[in-house]
């Protein structure tokens, strides 16, 4: 390996005194010019001395050009002629120093370092290790190492301005015995000029890319190895290390939340939960480099990259694009002609690779599940346990009231201009696992983080980490962004009616409409796991009410909890089975209950609107008003129907609709109100593998689909991908006729063995959220056949 030394200026900068070297330090241009003027006649004193001792290696200036490259030692040539100048590496003096010839980090995927550090799944030839854990390396020297006279240490540097005090410049000493919990190295074995080192890293070490060099000292001087980018070290968080703040003690959970590269994302409504498979692909070629690029692109100092709290805040901001040109550009307009429709994506690999390839140009387009899917990939890739979480009936509080407010006019019709708060049919975010030493004890564990750009946190579109314990107990005064997450899962819905003088009065409240069936993929299976209890106490219990009132006492509308009014008439909306299908009439059931011993008369207003899944109103498609009589203790069911022709021209992404019911009881002036979200179910794509699945051998998949609509689907695009099966590809199919059935065959060559998932989706302007998945077990190729 080529050898060079630091200049005197560089060595002093890291707190070490310069040693005498046979060469010149790198100086500024001004210093060089002054030196040349001062020594025009007699030359540098050291050079003059060396010339007297050994004229062959340090000839007069007119014999040999003096360059500005600093070399620890100028090697002696075997013989010097007038037309051949001394070249570094050819000198006999080289034997006097302890030079580093090569560094072997033992970075093979199946080697002991990668397997013991649980990084052998990364499809990368880089040296990838986890902090707080020992690793081994070989160093080949120019002669055998003599501990009695020789010294050696490792230099690790990360970031643009490496500094010892900030942890971005690490000096690893060679010690006789490893003590742990510090940066240190010791000799494990020695074979002539080769020596094997065992190296310890701190469990608080910064993550990211480090440059490594080896510096040696002996009686004859100092030598420093040249930086080789191929030997750069990628340091990750370590959930297997008890002293790392991301430590997770259950192996099955580490397998799921760190090492599993495929998952499930839930969507729909609380009554119609849908699921789609997502390729996280954190180990795929290029993804680790893309994740490091995301950190570097953030412009945040690497000195903060040792703290997972800080890292997830950085990543939360960098996954979206409004502030910092992050990975994904969000779009909820319904017009995605300038990019890819959010419903088409089936994984993170294509997105992250495109972002990296285009040098940080945001990828178009994403919505909440895309942001969350990419976030999970980055978390797991960097070593932070993470999972994708879906909250059904998820509130978006825009005024820090910690309530979801609905404003009605004098006739009890919604005032759309004022209804800034919304309840999303579903919202997808992430949980990240870490200790929280910055919070009171008991707040470590799962933390909610969110990359979807909804509201700003300290001036930037990001959210979290919010401790789930704090969310559950209404401790909204704890950081970060606990109030916003609390409102998403446990805010009350307050209805306000406009008075004749323009003010508003609270007329009704609903306490159980927000935060249902909070879901994530179960550990070790493809089943849905309900984690609502992590976020909130059971609805209606004393602990849940205390949490809500504690949280709202810090909100902007604390007076809402002084409202009390007797209520003896209730209203509920139900749906049979999995609900209405796309292209068919939608049928629901409205149930009215009179719990009093007297007759009640009421006027019921109904309004159904097409909604974006975020709860934003698009268009009202049907309105009704009905007068009803309820006998004492009567329960009255009402059938409600909306015909296909009423909604077919108004649907947007997710085919979401919302039925709003309001009413007033004449005898008591009680106001009833509720909102019921539902979606029109879309058909699945049917995937059928064709042929035997063997690594390196061609096979195919047949994709089948039936158009459920009476209208033609225009410019249909199929999107297919599968980790270890085929990279993401788009198939421009064309039009599909009314109620028509189609099939197509796609060929591919599997690249990795084992159980795999092949994913497909369909996209067109008339129909979205159509997808399918099939499992394929790929066999190893039999080379002996």
Kindly describe this structure.
Its EC number is 2.3.2.13. The active site is at 368, 427, 450. There is one protein chain. The protein has 785 residues and is an alpha+beta fold. The chain has 4 domains: 94-236, Immunoglobulins (Immunoglobulin-like, Sandwich), CATH 2.60.40.10; 251-560, Coagulation Factor XIII, Chain A, domain 2; 569-679, Immunoglobulins (Immunoglobulin-like); 686-778, Immunoglobulin-like, CATH 2.60.40. It has 14 helices and 40 strands. β23 (492-498) and β24 (504-510) form a beta hairpin. The protein is globular, with a radius of gyration of 33 Å. The protein starts with a strand and ends in a 7-residue tail after the last strand.
Question: How do the strands and helices of this protein lay out in sequence?
Answer:
Layout: E1 3-4, H1 8-13, H2 29-38, H3 45-53, E2 100-104, H4 112-116, E3 127-130, E4 135-141, E5 151-157, E6 169-173, E7 184-191, E8 194-200, E9 208-218, E10 221-225, E11 233-236, H5 251-259, E12 262-269, E13 272-279, H6 287-297, H7 308-319, E14 328-330, H8 349-357, E15 363-366, H9 368-382, E16 386-396, E17 403-408, E18 422-434, E19 445-450, E20 456-457, E21 460-461, E22 463-467, H10 468-472, H11 482-490, E23 492-498, E24 504-510, E25 516-521, E26 528-530, H12 532-535, H13 542-552, E27 569-574, E28 586-594, E29 600-611, E30 617-630, E31 635-642, H14 644-647, E32 656-665, E33 671-679, E34 686-690, E35 699-706, E36 713-722, E37 726-736, E38 741-748, E39 754-763, E40 770-778
Parallel strand pairs: 3-11, 14-15, 17-23
Antiparallel strand pairs: 1-10, 2-4, 4-8, 5-6, 5-9, 7-8, 9-10, 9-11, 12-13, 16-18, 16-25, 18-19, 19-22, 20-21, 23-24, 25-26, 27-28, 28-31, 29-30, 29-32, 32-33, 34-35, 35-38, 36-37, 36-39, 39-40
